[in-house]
């Protein structure tokens, strides 16, 4: 199973239209069109999972730079999600810092 990143998508595209583009090269397991959580509008990129790695490689080679909607799509193998520290945390150990006394 290979996960593919599809970027620079026209906002009018749907999951079905993206699936149609990739099904020309083989079986598509899943299409995830990423949407803004507040507005529900597409954010311009998607992830496609294909079951056969060879078919996925062919789809990447053929569709990278292809016009989808009104834009040239960026298509490549998805990179693993980076782990981030996330949130606001004070790093490092030791006792809590004390406030300095004013100089004057």
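Q: What amino acid sequence fits the structure above?
A:
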């Amino acid at each position: 199973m290979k996960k593919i990143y599809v970027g620079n998508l026209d906002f009018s595209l749907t999951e079905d239209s993206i699936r149609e583009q990739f099904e020309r090269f083989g079986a598509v397991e899943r299409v995830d069109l990423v949407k803004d959580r507040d507005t529900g509008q597409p954010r311009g990129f998607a992830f496609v999972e294909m079951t056969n790695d060879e078919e996925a490689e062919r789809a990447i080679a053929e569709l990278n730079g292809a016009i989808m909607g009104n834009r040239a799509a960026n298509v490549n193998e998805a990179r693993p999600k980076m782990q981030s520290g996330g949130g606001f945390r004070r790093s490092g150990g030791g006792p809590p810092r004390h406030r300095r006394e004013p100089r004057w």
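Q: And what stands out in the fold?
A: Residues 3 and 49 are 4 Å apart (CA to CA).
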